Amino acid sequence: MSSCSKNITNAFSVVYNTLENVKKLMEYCDKVAESNGYCVCTPKFLRNNTDSNVEGWVYNKFFKIYQSSEDERLENGWRNGPLYVLEINFEEAPLYYLSKFEYEDIKEWRGGISPSAWWAFYFPTNIGDNRIEFKKLDDIYTLSIPKEAYKKSYWGLERVVFRNGDLIEVNKDNVNTNIFEEFNKLKEK
């Protein structure tokens, strides 16, 4: 095998190992969500999946959606409260985003979110998106509010409060602190 072939093989090996670790992290978060006061809203992770664009061939953005177990359960399967979103993002550096998404009226939603609806959680935390207005709340948290013309396209999104961190710092031993305790802090924002 040539050195170029070996490099390609090694690169794919690294990607596969990374994806396996992402899978383990998301499964572990789902496993401990209930004991941390949250319920899992998406049995599958949300992701960009497309055959027409090479960026969709290898997943580099993953989203898991949770809600607080304390919020009232609705007939449509949702709870009457915000969505708490864990995003794992490899676009530039390995980062994780923790967000609280607040909506006009979640009571009007249908049950479930398609795995292909990743965009509804990606763009409101993408500072470069011109459909959203961003404002730093402090050194840690950012507020995003969709411009009026785009609220409906984001399912009646009112606002998002989010933060990010270095994914390398998250492991099984600190998931409760780095993810679910941060969701608790977002409740107050």
Automatic annotation (TrEMBL):
UniProt organism field: Clostridium thermobutyricum DSM 4928
Full protein name: Uncharacterized protein
Domain of life: Bacteria
